[in-house]
Design goal:
Blueprint: H1 3-7, E1 12-16, E2 26-29, H2 33-39, E3 44-48, H3 53-62, E4 66-69, H4 77-86, E5 90-93, H5 97-110
Helix pairs in contact: 2-3, 3-4
């Protein structure tokens, strides 16, 4: 699945639309950025509630293909600017992390 496929999911808002349309190979849900750096797989969609610029930096460092902010958290302008600079898709949903993880996992499993 591509990042652009995530953008079309019901209830998903694309906050930063100027991105490289990479393959989403997995999901990784975590709010602890050191955990993301140590364990997030390359090409994952990072599913988190951490809405700040450091999240984008860590996602980029880990090789994530995008970031999903859950619980309809407000996203500050500096986070959007950081995602734009990295050409990283930034999405938001009202779903919580568990719900978003289940949805993404089901979609990725169905494509195998």
């Amino acid at each position: 699945m591509k990042a652009s496929d995530v953008a079309t999911l019901d209830g998903v808002e694309t906050v930063q639309p100027d991105y490289e349309n990479r393959d989403i190979l997995a999901g990784y849900a975590s709010d602890l950025l050191s955990d993301v750096m140590a364990h997030a797989p390359e090409g994952c969609l990072l599913i988190t509630i951490q809405a700040h610029g450091n999240t984008v930096s860590v996602a980029s460092l880990a090789g994530a293909a995008g970031v999903m902010i859950c619980n309809r958290r407000p996203i500050p302008d500096d986070m959007i600017a950081a995602a734009r600079a990295e050409r990283l898709p930034l999405f938001r949903t009202a779903r919580n992390q568990f719900e978003m993880s289940c949805l993404l996992g089901g979609l990725l499993s169905a494509r195998e």
